[in-house]
Amino acid sequence: MTEELFRADAYKKSCEATVTGVDELGIRLDRTVFYPMGGGQPGDTGTLTLADGRTIRIADTRKGADAGEIVHVPAPEQPRPEAGSNVTATIDWERRYRHMRVHTSLHLLSAVIVGSVTGGQIGDGKGRLDFDLPDTSLDKDAIETKVNALIAADHKTATQWVTDAEMDQRPDLVKTMSVKPPRGAGRVRLLEIPGVDLQACGGTHVARTAEIGKIVVTKIENKGRHNRRVIVALAEG
Predict the structure, then answer these.
(1) Distance CA 48, CA 148 (A)
(2) Which strand (E) or helix (H) includes residue 234?
(3) CB-based contacts of 10: which residues, under 8 Å, 6+ apart?
């Protein structure tokens, strides 16, 4: 298993690690700050720096076939390290931070719009949530105003952990119908924005909502009889 340093500290930009395996899929480390694609959030990019100073550009990060395994996918024609070698793993922080801001804004969006979330996607500076809201008309300007008010209130965010058994007893903690929270370790992580939102989530988030900055609701689309897609973007990069 890969020690997931980003779970405890989403602001950690680099770490020292040991290569545990290399194959056609990518590079495995004993520990990492790289977030693997999942829950609608893209995998991190960045570099692995070898002891001799050479760097390996990482184009994507994915979950491995085995539970708890993370694979760092190198860009084409990059050098490959040997198992057992030491590297410094460094994420593309500016890109990751935009993901964190967008991801946290989507939690606020799900608190403002009352309805089951049927899907979502986080991008570089923008994101979306789909809601199961048949025969419902959404006011774009009103949603934007409410989300920005929650951002400006500078709420703290915090993580909690519950056991798998507790999670089974609290289905209300899972808002997204199409994405299940990471399980298998005996416990599930929750993101809490006190007084605003509490839900299971394995992604990376900012520590305070004011870090998000102002957002704009760029579009609301009807995606079938039930789905209403709300697309948001950071007003500034």
Answers:
(1) 37
(2) strand 227-234
(3) 96, 100, 204, 205, 206
Provide CB contacts within 8 A for 143, sequence distance 6+.
109, 112, 113, 217, 220, 230
3-state secondary structure labels for all residues of 27-42: EEECEECCCCCECCEC
Contact 232, 147 (CB under 8 A): yes
Boundaries of every domain in the chain:
3-91, 96-234
Q: Give the C-alpha distances (Å, rounded to integers) separating 127 from 64, 91, 92, 195.
A: 25, 21, 19, 23
Structure tokens belonging to residue 155: 């709420």
Q: What is the pLDDT of residues 183-213, one digit of tens each?
A: 556 778 899 999 999 988 889 999 999 999 9
Crossing angle of helices 93-112/140-152, nearest 10°?
120
Assigned CATH for 96-234: 3.30.980.10
Q: What's the maximum distance between 2 C-alpha atoms anywhere in the chain? A: 62
Percent of the chain with pLDDT over 70: 96
The residue type at 84:
G
- Give the separation between CA 108 and CA 194, rounded to whole angstroms: 11
Return the residue matching tokens 């991801």: 103
Task: Specify the fold of 3-91.
Answer: Elongation Factor Tu (Ef-tu); domain 3 (2.40.30)
pTM of the model: 0.92
Helix (H, G, I), strand (E, B) or coil at 72: strand
Let me know: does 209 contact 147? Beta carbons within 8 Å: no
Structure tokens at 199: 């839900």
Cα–Cα distance, 112 to 115 (Å, whole number): 9
Neighbours of 4 (CB within 10 A): 18
